[in-house]
Write a structure and sequence with these properties.
Helices cover about 30% and strands about 25% of the residues. By secondary structure, the chain is of the alpha/beta class. The chain has a 6-stranded parallel β-sheet, with helices on both faces. The relative contact order is 0.12.
């Protein structure tokens, strides 16, 4: 899959294509429907499928300090999109200048002049241009003049997780923030993932017999609610069942909020400096302050047992 940052990186001989545009944070099941249909349409026409997305999130440029929690960093999104059959991802740097462009200018510069769109696939709530003035009706109108078709994909609604809400990044963030990993997984179609580099922490886990990877997460990451979770730690391409702690370690009067993952039954791992992924499968319990180290160790043993059982065969 080709990856471009900015219009100038698009090959000069790029031909016609099928395009879909959006932030696509999380590449959840609603996004998968839209992107999947774009890929399907591209195959029907014998053309490449292109996803156009933005960095940073438009909200951060329009209202600095309002950047939403990130469900998946750009590299992870591209990986997921490649798995859906996308041929190219165009990341547009979202600048104050871009935010001021009219819908007509955006369509001409990006869809017509750069990507030579033959068809555009979007969800019903797609908005674009200055002050989100453009919608799918205007996009279709502009497409008729510019020579591309517009197809609107109806989004599915969630089940029990969102009480019938449409799949969305907003819903997913809310579920993650509440620690509802089953619900978030339902919307995403996979466990929620947090990424980052393993750094040295207080090393208390090692002293207690449960050495953990202390993950310095990617900026703006959507971190689940404080508590203990079952999931997986992936490092150097190896996926390992894990018990995961999110919080401040109140038993030791901690103040910094951390994400720590214990790779179950693994000894001698040296992960410092590695970029790793932590996948959250299930919430086990809330964060607690224990009266003694012995009580903490007993509870940690139970946590590991539950995590092992939940991840076995999952």
């Amino acid at each position: 899959m080709q990856r471009w940052r900015g219009l100038e990186e698009i090959p000069g001989d790029w031909g016609r294509s099928v395009v879909t545009i959006g932030s696509f944070d999380g590449v959840h099941r609603g996004h998968q429907l839209i992107i999947g249909r774009a890929v399907e349409r591209a195959r029907e026409l014998g053309l490449p499928a292109v996803v156009v997305t933005f960095d940073p999130h438009p909200r951060e440029v329009i209202r600095p300090g309002s950047h939403p929690a990130v469900l998946a960093p750009q590299a992870r999104r591209a990986e997921l999109m490649a798995g859906l059959g996308v041929d190219a991802v165009l990341v547009l740097p979202f600048t104050p200048e871009l935010s001021q462009e009219s819908p007509e200018t955006f369509v001409r510069q990006v869809l017509v002049d750069a990507l030579h769109a033959r068809a555009v696939v979007e969800g019903p709530n797609f908005r674009f241009g200055h002050r989100a003035a453009g919608d799918v009706a205007l996009l279709a109108e502009l497409g008729r003049s510019a020579g591309f078709d517009v197809e609107v994909v109806d989004l599915q609604v969630s089940g029990t997780a969102g009480a019938g809400e449409p799949f969305s990044s907003t819903l997913t963030r809310r579920l993650v923030e509440a620690g509802d990993m089953a619900g978030a997984g339902e919307v995403l179609g996979r466990p929620h993932r947090v990424e980052g580099v393993v750094v040295r922490g207080a090393q208390r886990g090692r002293e207690l017999g449960y050495p953990t990877a202390n993950v310095e997460t990617v900026p703006y990451s959507a971190i689940p609610a404080d508590g203990v979770y079952a999931g997986w730690l992936t490092a150097d391409g190896e996926r390992m069942p894990a018990a995961i702690s999110v919080g401040t370690n109140p038993t030791f009067d901690g103040t910094a909020r951390t994400v720590e993952a214990y790779a179950i039954d693994r000894v001698g791992l040296d992960l410092y400096g590695l970029h790793v992924a932590v996948d959250f499968l299930a919430y086990l319990r809330g964060m607690e302050k224990f009266d003694s180290i012995e009580a903490l160790l007993d509870r940690m043993a139970d946590d590991v047992k539950q995590a092992r059982e939940l991840t076995d065969g999952a």
